[in-house]
Request: fold
Amino acid sequence: MTDSSANTFNVLFLCTGNSARSIMAESILRQVGAGRFGAFSAGSHPAGRVNPFALELLTRNRMPTDGLRSKHWDEFAKPHAPRLDFVFTVCDNAAGEVCPVWPGQPMTAHWGIPDPATVEGSDEDKRKAFAEASRILLNRIRIFTDLPLSKLDRLSLQHKLDELGESPANAELP
Reply:
């Protein structure tokens, strides 16, 4: 695995609407991986706005929210887009869609997480769903950022990335 520039790895999180899970993952990685990772998110059919429950949760947890916006994944397939090292789908719909060809052949994995934006009920029920999705993302992102990326060969790294996505949502991985 080679660095994209000065030991910074660029990560793109994908979801269909790019309004909740992928946005939260972008923010979490910005915080947890500051200095080592560039974090981005996009969607195949962007909602055009960030889910207010996602913004509320990120703000409450003191995660960065500046510049967060719902955007189309084509922005990252253009010639002057950031070079991507990793692309993670966080929803099952985006995982099944035909993605653009990403310049630089980034490593990919599916990290499916239940969609908190589809939860019905009270605002408290919705907040709990967003908190659970955020907890899962935070756990996976922390493990990912602790991997010795420069010491793993591509096959070993791919195995670890896939393993992260296959782990039960409530499991703590070694």
Observations:
- The longest strand covers residues 9-14.
- The helical segments are 21-32, 52-60, 92-96, 123-146, 154-166.
